[in-house]
Automatic annotation (TrEMBL):
The keyword Transmembrane applies. GO terms for cellular component: endomembrane system; membrane. It comes from Cyprinodon variegatus. It is a multi-pass membrane protein. Pfam families: Cg6151-P. This is Calcium channel flower domain containing 1. The chain crosses the membrane at residues 21-44, 64-86, 98-131. InterPro entries: TVP18/Ca-channel_flower. Belongs to the calcium channel flower family. Its main location: membrane. GO terms for biological process: vesicle-mediated transport. Keywords: Membrane, Transmembrane, Transmembrane helix. PANTHER family: CALCIUM CHANNEL FLOWER HOMOLOG. It is found in: Endomembrane system.
Length: 168
């Protein structure tokens, strides 16, 4: 019983960011696909003599490693600190992950602008965009929005009535 009680608070902790389970999985799948595309494109980008392309390719492989480490740490079981980094990454707010992933994806594109770097980092950048959208929060319901609009119209009518009805 004590192990079940200890597991209950840990289940509630990830839901504090307001993401649904399917959106969380969508972000993780996008992170895995972004890592794969970064790794393949990064290795392909390193097969050149241009030093900027090689640097961008190495950075893309590093991006892939970080994406795998943060999103799917079970792929990096041979690394001792993988679970610690994944736990720390899970504690980050969605806007922080969005900024981190988008920044990581943009750096190789600025370093060496080519189709390989652009399309290789597109899915990693999309992962950051998904986390950024998650930071905006859930969409409000229509009833609350209609009530706010009705209240605003009433306030506008009262303001117009007092201005027009008041002696100057």
């Amino acid at each position: 019983m004590s192990s079940e009680e200890a597991a209950a608070p840990s289940k509630a902790a990830p839901d504090e960011d307001g993401m649904t389970w399917w959106y969380r999985w969508l972000c993780k799948i996008a992170g895995v696909l972004g890592g794969i595309s970064c790794a393949v494109s990064g290795v392909w980008n390193c097969v050149t003599v241009n030093p900027l392309n090689i640097a961008a390719g190495v950075w893309m492989v590093l991006n892939a490693f970080v994406l795998f480490l943060c999103e799917v740490p079970f792929c990096c079981q041979f690394i001792e600190f993988a679970n610690a980094i994944a736990a720390r990454a899970d504690k980050l707010k969605p806007w922080q992950k969005a900024l981190f992933y988008c920044g990581m994806a943009l750096f190789p594109v600025f370093l060496s602008f080519s189709f390989t770097t652009l399309f290789g980092n597109a899915i990693a950048f999309a992962t950051g965009v998904l986390y950024g959208l998650a930071s905006l929060g859930k969409k409000g319901d229509a009833v609350t929005y209609a009530r706010l609009q009705h209240q605003k119209q009433g306030d506008d009518e009262r303001m117009a009535g007092t201005v027009n009805g008041a002696p100057e």
